[in-house]
Amino acid sequence: MNDKPKNLPNAQPNGEPLKPLTDVVLERRATAEFLPDEVPEEFLEAILKLGAQAPSGYNLQPWRFVVVREEENRKRLQAVAFNQPKVGQAPVVIIAVGMTREWKERADEVFREGAERGAGSLDTWEKYRDGAFQFLEGMQHMPTWVNRHTMIAYTVMMLAAEAYGFDTAPMEGFDAAAVKREFNVPEEGEVVALLAIGRAKGAEKVYPGRFGLSRIVYEERFGEAWEGNDEV
Amino acid sequence: MNDKPKNLPNAQPNGEPLKPLTDVVLERRATAEFLPDEVPEEFLEAILKLGAQAPSGYNLQPWRFVVVREEENRKRLQAVAFNQPKVGQAPVVIIAVGMTREWKERADEVFREGAERGAGSLDTWEKYRDGAFQFLEGMQHMPTWVNRHTMIAYTVMMLAAEAYGFDTAPMEGFDAAAVKREFNVPEEGEVVALLAIGRAKGAEKVYPGRFGLSRIVYEERFGEAWEGNDEV
User: Fold this and answer.
1) If you average pLDDT over every residue of chain B, what do you get?
2) What is the CATH number of domain B30-202?
3) Less crowded by CB within 10 Å, the N or C end of chain A?
4) Looking at beta carbons, which residues of chain A come within 8 Å of B183?
5) Where are the domains of chain A?
6) Would the ipTM clear 0.95, i.e. be above it?
7) Min Cα separation A93/chain B (Å)
8) What share of chain B is helix, strand, coil (3-state, %, to 5)?
């Protein structure tokens, strides 16, 4: 495996500093239309490398990402994504895939190398791996597990793209079986979501509102009113 | 629903600026042991409010968060989370829950108010809602859908906590049925993950390595080698 990425760009392409996370989260809107402007290679790689740093259970990293940039392929993806024009328009669309079985083939490497790096013990990594297998094989629904994990890396990528000043569109509107067929995703792969990255064309979507904390947060037990500040 | 939150703290509790997202992602480690230091209310609310701004399909926000802070309850949670000491130690543990049915009760409000705010049309919101219902009712496995969405808000919270200088531990090791029972989560609720927030005690875990992009990223089609830079 690799060490932490070094030399990631620490500014936006125009030289401005990265947006602070508060601005990233508050200003992000799902982009409806994209300009054809490309995402410079250095920034796309930084976005992918940051996503790859996301945490996962036992560090198994059960996520894979297909980067679709060729126009012909974006159009093919659009056709299996309810024909949403933004899929064909955006210069980059990432297909996020969760692997329900492949993690097992990579597990020895992950556990042994983690131990070698000092994140575990060289005497006990096999026992730890066996415990992980027991936990994961007891999982009722592996597609849910890989969806959950893949969304962590996916969300990091979305926020990283926004911090670098790009616009994004997270998408779940697609025919998963058709995406798998068209993009050679193996049978065990779960197509989790699509992420378009580029530059918005025209005005961003209006903010549609969000539930206040009193409607989504509970104190101590589900159903017990959140007593904190609910002002905007 | 609410407007965007205003007046979120724009610095860490010690007055230092928020960490840039690159540092947040590269320096974050799953914290193994927590100090008892509390997370100041203003920062906990900011973390929750930022999570609440995450995107979701049709803006349905199918996530709920139980904030567990009382020691007795953290111990009860620890008991159903494979007795991991950090659950009882951390000053705040958030139980992230995805709701597989409740979104439907809130859908009229979401679609109508979105239209009123200008994110849709007042003439067509009901049609749009009906299309959403058709899409969602055709979903093969609603627990996967709510897990996916809840993880977006969850990941935003984890990164926001780190940007404000706190330490976090994302956790999936728990007995979901027991968590539901102990914390009154209704039958339709999916316990997605736990997030501990606080201050790390002692050294953070060692970085265990990550797969390089050549092992998780494909060009154009699954299986086609990523030709970009794979250096760290």
Assistant:
1) 96
2) 3.40.109.10
3) C
4) 220-222
5) 21-203
6) yes
7) 10
8) 40, 15, 40
